[in-house]
Amino acid sequence: MSQANLAKLITDAVPGCDSQSAYCCQGEVTASDLKLSIDETTPIKLPLRPATFRKLVDASQQAPYGQRTKTLVDTSVRDTLEIDGQHVGLSDDLQAAIDSAAITSADALGLDNDRLQVELYKLLIYPKGGFFAPHRDSEKRRGMVATMIVVLPNAFAGGELIVRHSGQETDFNFGKNASDQAIQYAAFFADCEHEVRKIRSGVRVCLAYNLILQPKSESTKQTKSKAAPPINRALREWTARRPSDPMVVALEHQYTQDGLSPDLLKGADSKLHHALAQAAFDCDYALHFGQVSRHLCQHAEDDSHGYGRYRDYSRAIDHDDLYIGEVYEDEIFIDGWKNEHGELVDLPYLACDASQFVSTIPIEDWVPTSQDYEGYTGNAGNTLDRWYHKSAIVLWPHANSLEVFLDMGIGFAINHLLAMREQLFDTPDEELEEACWECQRTAEAIIDRWPSQLHNARTDGDPEARALKKFADELIRFDDPALIERFLMTVHQRDHFFQLASFIQAACQRIGADVMTPILLRLLRTDRQPNQHGIVFGEGLVARDAFWLAHLCQRKDHGGLTESDLAKFLDAAIDQFQKNVQGAERDRWSRSAKPAPIWVDLCKAALSIDDVAAAERLFKIAVSSPSTFDLRKLSVPAAVELHQWSRKKLNRVSPLMSTWIDGLAQQLGSATDLEPQPPADLASPEVTGCQCGLCNQLSAFLSDPGASTTRIVARKDLRNHVEHTIVSEQLDVQTGLDRSGNTHALILTKTTGSHDRAVTQYKSDLKLLATLKALS
Predict the structure, then answer these.
(1) For FRET with 399, which of 42, 452, 610, 731 sits at 20 to 30 Å CA-CA?
(2) Residue 612 pLDDT greater than 50, yes or no
(3) Confidence of residue 528 (pLDDT cuts 50, 70, 90)
């Protein structure tokens, strides 16, 4: 069933929801006593006369407008005078007529008259030139759902009220008021965009009312009734087709966070909610309210044809004139969650896609809340960014809540599990088995959704990292070896940085070393699987696994494991580690973990349990892989670290280590037998690898003992080639550029760079040799 058919099935089953409901209405107020006063001391006669108008102006102030959390006064946005409603008094006849008009408006807008409260907010004065730019009314009181404007009889021209909602527009011109013939009113929902056009002549005076719905009493709340079977069928069909995706039913109106409540829903939204709430009850679905935000970024072009940098983009662009192309980004998420009663609930945002929406207005036809067009800037293409906001009812089966919670983030799902585990202590015996099974299912789902972390470690302050650690700590208390193995194997494949030392130690002590030994052995022997591209990240042994093994070997109780078990672990770990070394020897950009820290931890593990065979294998790997175990950068620092660790932890140094360190010292001794001497001249017999004419000229210059500098006149690309040869082959030549003449010349000057580098290396080797000798 398509989205359009699904939306039609739901709305057809709810009377009044098959099309957009009224969002505004108008009428006339009939009253014989048209009197009002300001602070009970200043009577105002209608229609207004110039002297009366001056009284109003004296009692008024410039009207502000709201911008997010700020209240501003800016006559370029709103040029209106106002008097607070508490200072305005109406005759009984006029008040009764306006109250009657409010009830009529509520009927037209589908509001509950029994809960209606009419509150005079302001008396507004629009002199000639006065206006109010397009805006939406803020929710001034809890329960405010609509605004009613009562225009008082007075001569004026212009001042039309334009109300827009979901692509529709209604124009109220109050023609009878302008001719002093009647009092007209207009009412509209507070989320509708509206504006007051400029007053061309005369003065427009009106009363602004807030239409408020009081909360339902328990006695008036609707009772459960049988839902329309088509809605039940639609929910079940949705679940059968998309079991893990919530259904998002877009509401016709946009509600504030306070206004998004069952008692305050407007028009068709109220009927739709009632039907969906009953269907959710019948089908065992969870029902929530949420605020939908969508950001859509697309390629767009105007009539500048790529010459937008010459246009003035400070002025507004008519987005209807833009050619809109491919989508660069389309992000939709739901937050601001409330439960079925309209109470705030602590749920994180949920990412979703357009296909999850059921809406009488297709999502492609939603009206953006704001949009921004960026023309050609020279650095980026033309883009149109649009932001949309909708209020919605979100439904999913209670049985699928776990999948939804996981989509909200693994951290949230983990906290949900921890809360479930905490509640087990208070669960009745007859319900305990089912509750434990639900905890088990949740833990398995979290393991299966474990996030991939193959390249970079999480930061310590990362909330997700803390949640994952809490989960691992709690998982041990399940006392389930199969669940622990499932966790270890999943982390083994997906997460190379989650530390397992404390987890494995605790598991061995709680479940038993005899149970954990085969699990850990399988863990170390299991190769990582290639991704969808056939690439294996972390082939061999990752540093984390060498660390937990060294941790167990260094503990006095070995976590309950025997040294024989640990020796088996070491043998398997070294087998895997050889793959790291083979990858590094084969490819300097190997995707395997760097061998150095892994090798040091494995050495610590072998030496801690005095596993001579394992230590011999490790030192042999280091000696036989000189390109990986660089003498100066890796081997000497590792020798210092292992020697100091052995003295501190073991109070001895193994003969194997001493022999290895002696071998390193011999290599450095050979390297420092002769101190580098300055060259007799700067001639070099070296010939460059390239045999082009310019490089041959460079070779001749290098071999000439009498030449210290030369010039190569050539165009830029050829000069660049010569410079590249000098840099890539580390030739003792310094380059410069002579810009005189039509063709620039490359200036080459011989240096003593090779000798200088040799001297630096010699001095460094002497220090390293002294460091190794100090260890003996």
Answers:
(1) 452
(2) yes
(3) confident
Q: Are 231 and 271 in contact (CB under 8 A)?
A: no
Cα dihedral 251→243→407→426 (10° resolution): 100
Helices and strands (DSSP H and E) totals, the chain: 22, 29
Tell me how far CA of residue 583 lies from CA of 527, 537, 769, in angstroms. Answer: 14, 11, 30
For residues 588-606, average pLDDT = 81
Angle at 486 between CA 482 and CA 489, to 5 degrees: 135
pLDDT of residue 637: 94
Residue 291, helix vs strand vs coil: strand
Which pLDDT belongs to residue 376? 55
What is the rounded CA–CA span in Å between residue 229 and residue 236? 11
Contact assessment for residue 605 and residue 566, using Cβ atoms and an 8 Å cutoff: yes
State residue 309's pLDDT score. Answer: 40
Measured CA to CA, the distance from residue 506 to residue 331 in angstroms comes to 42
Q: Are strands 357-358 and 247-250 parallel, antiparallel or unpaired?
A: parallel
- pLDDT confidence bin for 5, thresholds 50/70/90: low
d(CA 705, CA 228): 101
More confident residue, 776 or 444: 444
The pLDDT confidence band at residue 310, using thresholds 50, 70 and 90, is very low
- Eight-state DSSP code of residue 689: S
CA distances for 318 relative to 67, 315, 382, angstroms = 23, 10, 14
Show contacts of 241-245: CB within 8 Å, 24+ apart.
Answer: 241/1, 242/356, 243/397, 243/400, 243/403, 244/400, 244/403, 244/404, 244/407, 245/352, 245/356, 245/396
Q: What whole-number distance in Å separates Cα of residue 473 and Cα of residue 662?
A: 45
pLDDT value at position 593?
Answer: 61
220 pLDDT band, cuts 50/70/90, is very low
Query: In Å, how far from its chain's centre is CA 488?
Result: 28
> Distance (Å, rounded) from C-alpha 25 to C-alpha 189?
10
**Structure tokens belonging to residue 480:** 């389930």
Q: Pick the closest to residue 359 from 1, 5, 110, 109 (CA basis).
A: 5
How far is residue 381's CA from residue 375's CA, in Å, rounded to a whole number? 7
Which residues, at least 6 apart from 302, have a Cβ–Cβ distance to it below 8 Å? 308, 311, 317, 321, 322, 323, 373, 375, 382
The bridge status of strand 370-374 relative to strand 383-397 is antiparallel
d(CA 348, CA 392): 16
For residue 671, the Cα-to-chain-centroid distance in whole angstroms is 55
Q: What's the chain's Rg over C-alpha atoms?
A: 40
pLDDT of amino acid 709: 94
User: Do 11 and 18 form a contact (C-beta atoms < 8 A)?
Assistant: yes
Of 66-70, 499-503, 622-626, give the lowest mean pLDDT range: 66-70
- Cα separation, 707 vs 749, in Å, equals 9
Is there a contact between 713 and 724 (Cβ–Cβ < 8 Å)? Answer: no
Q: What is the pLDDT of residue 123?
A: 94
- CA gap 492, 540 in Å, rounded: 11
